[in-house]
Amino acid sequence: MAEVIEGHGGELALAAARAFGVNEMFTLSGGHVFPLYDAAHKTGFPIYDVRHEQTAVFAAEAVAKLQRRPGLAVLTAGPGVTNGISGLTSAFFNASPVLVLGGRAPAFRWGSGSLQEFDHVPLVAPITKYAGTVTDTDNIPGEVRAALTAALTAHRGPAFLDLPLEIVFSTGEAAAPGAPAVPVIEADPDEVSRAATLLASAARPVIIAGSDVWGGDAIAELRAAAEALQVPVFTNGMGRGALPPSHPLAFAKARRPALNEADVVCVIGTPLDFRLGFGEFGAAQVVHIVDAPSQRATHVETAVSPAGDLRRILAAIADHAGDRADHAEWIEGLRTAEDAGKARDAEAMAAETDLIKPARIYGELRRVLAADAVTIGDGGDFVSYAGRYLEPSQPGTWLDPGPYGCLGTGMGYAMGARVTYPDRQICVLMGDGAAGFSLMDAESLVRQGLPVVMVVGNNGIWGLEKHPMQAMYGYDVAADLQSGLRYDDVVKALGGAGETVEKAAEIGPALERAFSAGVPYLVNVLTDPGDAYPRSSNLA
Hints:
This is Acetolactate synthase. The chain has 540 residues and is α/β, with parallel strands linked by helices. 39% of the residues lie in helices and 16% in strands. It is built from 22 helices and 18 strands. Helix 16 (381-389) links the parallel strand 13 and strand 14 (398-399). 53% of the residues are buried.
């Protein structure tokens, strides 16, 4: 006879979430979701609360990204849910299996004007894998199970359920949740074979690996495929660190010559979006390997696009038994370009200028960051430098907002990273613009004993807007912030610590103090407002 669980709606929901490996919730207190708190409190289930709902969703997303299992955010009705929309949308673009459980005004009074009465589902449906309202307390475990199964099924993404007041406060019973059963998508073996043949026989092949390689737990298979066919590898997003920088097939600085000269470009687990020139690689044939058919590019012609479980696809490519071209000369040429790029970067990271260059900050960070440190990028111009100068040596140690480009992820990602790794270095890199979105949640970190290091590149402007607007129009508007603002004093006022740095030689000692402080600590570095990261427009 099947085991039956009984309890109020919060107890039923949490029991179902636990079956999927959910170990904590992130929330901002609200009366509509009290039963979820009650269930957590009575069972020792950790609750982390924040000062803005977007932070709760970003924290859940960080857990989902880093641990490759669902993260849970609990948001109260109405504005609680709508404040989490940007976090949900980022999770959707990042294929992060986040579950948001929302409160909802009572169904029996619907239309009467209850507090925070709003139909969330039509709003969140386009940015979730699953969205619905639970209409019976007994159905809560089944609905949570369906939502989390959808969230974990490739292509992964967030799910949303809201629980009307009388449903979540009432008691019910249901079958005990069993082990998750997540469907696995099998790729067409002929397409996989064609992709392997193209890579193996190409004279100048390149692999670009992205976040879904990490999310799909396919790091080992990526390495095996690259090594078997001897193909140079570039990475983006959470694909970074898939091959350590010392690996003979790992490249970062030679991307331009690689993509300009390649005859086959194989993009794995990342969309052909603005970060990759929209998949336009000159005369090269494009192989696009994705985890689900929905992720195949439709705006460019690809030679082949296998869709399915990335571990299985890459393992099959590694086992390719056909003819293989010799790529040694191609790899050697790229290594020469890579070494030249590293030499240029080393010079920039050592710059001794009166106005601190952002590159110098990253030169100092490279000296103090441990191999397993988690670095978090939350910003535009300043974080662009991070992507260039920081080279993660391990997979699963880099978090950025992803292709949606939403600012304000920093404090939530920091909370989720610290919860995931209590003993690692957690370092948040923020522009001074991004700091305005979420810095108040440094208080949440302080109050709950979650130390992280925040490094603010403070140039007093919106760097990605001011310089291009000047170039286009000869003037700029709405692009200035307060020069020299003391963001470290903000964190001090919230119970943390910090300092402002104005000289390049002071950066290293400040970072050492920050990482040894044991409290949230902000290093506020005043940088050169005239130093802009070189890039073409990403607006097209």
